[in-house]
């Protein structure tokens, strides 16, 4: 069954298992998180929702270049086996929403569990964090995924390798055989 794509929280779910993140690059750490969410959802007999943003917040704020276009990101997330993908447009209005408003939208999907990274922030001025999320939901954190050298796999680390021209490392940490390194990026951003 193919994932259903939404632009806002999924209406009408009696219960769900949700993961939320920028998922820029859908790298090996993201893949491990999404696979854990899918395993939990399947074990509970609940639909799995992956909620992401376009552009990713760091890209919106000009703190990072984009690793993957929205269409590719959604396709890769969907290919992992989630039931629903939410792609919210991240703009000035979304940025200004309170953490409480964001949690109200999340609550509308009746999550039995919410899976996020340990550094997850949300809401205006990034006031929401894992502790605030735990005040309303059962929150699960995935242990950070490490590469063979014992370093955490992250979008920031992937960008650092990219900036240094270490494209073999980028592909290794992203984990997609067909990950495309744009020629402009090979010559620098």
Q: Which descriptors would you attach to this protein?
A:
189 residues, alpha/beta, six-stranded parallel sheet, 38% helix, globular, disordered C terminus
The low-confidence runs, each spanning 5 or more residues with pLDDT under 50, are 183-189
Structural classification: alpha/beta
Q: Got a strand count? A: 6
Spatial arrangement of strands, main beta sheet: 1-4-3-2-5-6
* CATH topology label: Rossmann fold
Radius of gyration: 16 Å
Helix percentage range: 25-40%
Architecture overview:
- The chain is of the alpha/beta class and 189 residues long.
- It has a single domain, classed as HUPs (Rossmann fold, 3-Layer(aba) Sandwich).
- The chain is built from 9 helices and 6 strands; from the N terminus they run ββαβααβααβαβααα.
- Strand 2 (16-20), helix 1 (28-44) and strand 3 form a beta-alpha-beta unit.
Task: Give me the secondary-structure topology.
Blueprint: E1 4-6, E2 16-20, H1 28-44, E3 48-54, H2 57-60, H3 70-79, E4 84-89, H4 92-96, H5 99-107, E5 111-116, H6 130-134, E6 139-141, H7 155-163, H8 167-174, H9 183-186
Parallel strand pairs: 1-4, 2-3, 2-5, 3-4, 5-6
């Amino acid at each position: 069954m193919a994932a259903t794509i939404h632009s806002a929280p999924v209406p009408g779910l009696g219960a769900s298992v949700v993961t939320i993140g920028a998922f820029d690059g859908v790298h090996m750490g993201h893949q491990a998180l999404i696979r854990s969410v899918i395993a939990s959802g399947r074990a509970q007999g609940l639909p799995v929702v992956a909620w992401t943003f376009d552009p990713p917040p760091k890209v919106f704020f000009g703190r990072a270049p984009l690793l993957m276009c929205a269409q590719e990101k959604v396709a890769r997330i969907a290919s992992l086996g989630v039931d629903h993908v939410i792609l919210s447009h991240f703009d000035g209005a979304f940025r200004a929403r309170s953490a409480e408003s964001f949690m109200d939208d999340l609550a509308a999907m009746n999550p039995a569990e919410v899976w996020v990274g340990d550094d997850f922030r949300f809401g205006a001025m990034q006031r929401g964090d894992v502790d605030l999320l735990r005040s309303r939901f059962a929150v699960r954190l995935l242990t950070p995924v490490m590469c063979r050298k014992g370093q955490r796999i992250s979008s920031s680390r992937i960008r650092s390798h990219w900036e240094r021209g270490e494209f073999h490392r980028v592909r290794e940490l992203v984990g997609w055989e067909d990950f495309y390194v744009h020629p402009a990026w090979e010559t620098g951003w």
